Amino acid sequence: MTRRKKGRLILLLSIIILVFTGCSSKSKDEEGALPKEVKIGIIRVPNDKQVAISQKYFDEFFKDKGIKTKFMFFDSGVAANKALSSNSIDFAEMGYTNGVVALATDIPAELIWIHEVLGTNEALVTPKDSSITDIKQLKGKKIATPFSSTSHFSLLQALKLAGIEKEVTLLDMETNDIVAAWERGDLDAAYTWEPTLSTLKETGNVLIDSETLANKGFMTVNIDLVNAEFSKKYPELVQEYVKALNKGVEYYNENPDGAAKGAATELGIETNDALTQMQGTTWLMMNEQVSPDYLGTEATPGKFHQVFKDTAEFLAEQKSISNVPSDEDINHFINTTYIEKAMEK
Amino acid sequence: MKKKQTKSYKGYTYATWLIILVAWLIVTETNLVSSRLIPSPIQVVKTAGDIFINGYNGMSFWQHIGISLYRLIVSSFLAVLTAIPLGLMSGYFPRFRAVVDSLVQFYRPLPPLAYYTLLILWLGIDESPKIMLLYLAAFAPIYLSCVSAVRKIPIDYINNAESLGASKKDIFFTVILPGSLPDIFTGLRTAVGVAYTTLVSAEMVAATSGIGWMVIDASKYLKSDVMFVGIIFMGLTGILIDMGLRLVEKRVVFWKGRDES
Question: What is the 3-state secondary structure of A197-218?
Answer without folding.
Answer: HHHHHHCEEEEEEHHHHHHCCC
